[in-house]
């Protein structure tokens, strides 16, 4: 499989058949993902930036393929469909509201799916896993009662992923209703890819989610939940005030980190907490899978995205357990995000532990996250989100290891390399070839907006084009 994520605005701007010609005939794709919305330009001061700004760090990103003549713009969206409101009776969240833009242009998504099917390609929607209304990234309608919380009861500031608590029944029932609605309205659809069906650990604070009170219902008792919350709050306080150069110098990998945590008496409680996260994530995906089967969509494919190792330990996604309910699992090889995450963590840790040796802290964070083949830089200022013409971190070895590790854990469920198209052509060529081969020619590329004609040709050369 070689799939490309093509969001609907490119069908609107470039046309359905030209886009599919590029993907199938030039790049060699045999699967296409799109989403159930239509887009339009926003007036000045309105809408969301396209491409997404990634909590400020991704402001350097621009589109390889212009939209309405622009390589960065602000946009508004409308659902491409009018929701079946009866399906949403078990949730407090309202279904997506169609409008005049839905009426004027929404049919293009159904037309694209029909064209994809006619060509013999497999079709998917990508939707957000726990962010109502869910049909478009970064447009969140999550209400306060369903926000994931830190152990002190606060929300994380300036999150990249605006996910709700996976313990919320209202969120789960909304997600089930949305997916059943989409399968009913788009019979040509083969499956749905869920983005962020976990606790995305972009910010260091996001690592310490989730202590929303609804999580207590997933624990053996309220007392257990409260004790866990207090213990994790103590660890949060320690890491924000008591890191020492001596401790950091002994941490070179996850086993050595485990040893330090055992010395401090924190290891067992962290193990319990991470186990609880995995239960929340697995239960969420399992119940969606069950609802699809019960509604008569057994043949449709459920495809949850996943953070790569070792980020998955923090996000709560267990490849083996989640694989029981998945057609396949795309694992994100978004290397430009890895440096962004490291920078977020480093900024927060140095602010709260000002006496820590900067170079040693960078070395520890890079080692624990396993995000580069080379030695870490000496200065935090050198850890940054790469610009569109900048090389990304050298990752040949670590990417291969991450894909192989995920596949071992997933067992019989296929792992797909989810490769990002952002970056210079030559650098993209290297990342694409590496990950495509490491995943045994099973990959998704996100997304068409970053795939210049030259990058599409590169994909075709490596994939073998129509011979795939």
Describe the SSE topology:
Blueprint: E1 2-5, H1 8-14, H2 16-26, E2 31-34, E3 37-41, E4 48-50, E5 73-79, H3 100-105, H4 107-118, E6 122-128, H5 169-185, E7 191-195, H6 222-239, H7 245-249, H8 254-264, H9 267-294, E8 301-304, H10 311-315, H11 319-323, E9 328-333, H12 335-352, H13 358-369, H14 396-410, E10 414-420, H15 425-438, E11 443-446, H16 453-463
Parallel strand pairs: 1-2, 1-11, 2-6, 6-7, 7-8, 9-10, 10-11
Antiparallel strand pairs: 3-5, 4-5
Helix pairs in contact: 1-2, 2-16, 5-9, 12-13, 14-15, 15-16
Characterise this structure.
The protein has 468 residues and is of the alpha/beta class. Helices cover 42% and strands 12% of the residues. The protein has 16 helices and eleven strands. The protein has helices at 8-14, 16-26, 100-105, 107-118, 169-185, 222-239, 245-249, 254-264, 267-294, 311-315, 319-323, 335-352, 358-369, 396-410, 425-438, 453-463; strands at 2-5, 31-34, 37-41, 48-50, 73-79, 122-128, 191-195, 301-304, 328-333, 414-420, 443-446. The longest helix has 28 residues, at 267-294.
Kindly report the average pLDDT value: 95
Based on the coordinates given, report the CATH architecture.
Alpha-Beta Barrel
CATH fold naming: TIM Barrel
Percent helix among the residues?
A: 40-55%
Total separate domains = 1
> What is the helix tally?
16
Q: Biggest sheet: strands, sense, closure?
A: 8 strands, parallel
Helix/strand/pairing class, anyone?
Answer: alpha/beta
> What's the CATH C level?
Alpha Beta
User: Which range does the strand content fall in?
Assistant: 5-15%
Overall number of strands: 11
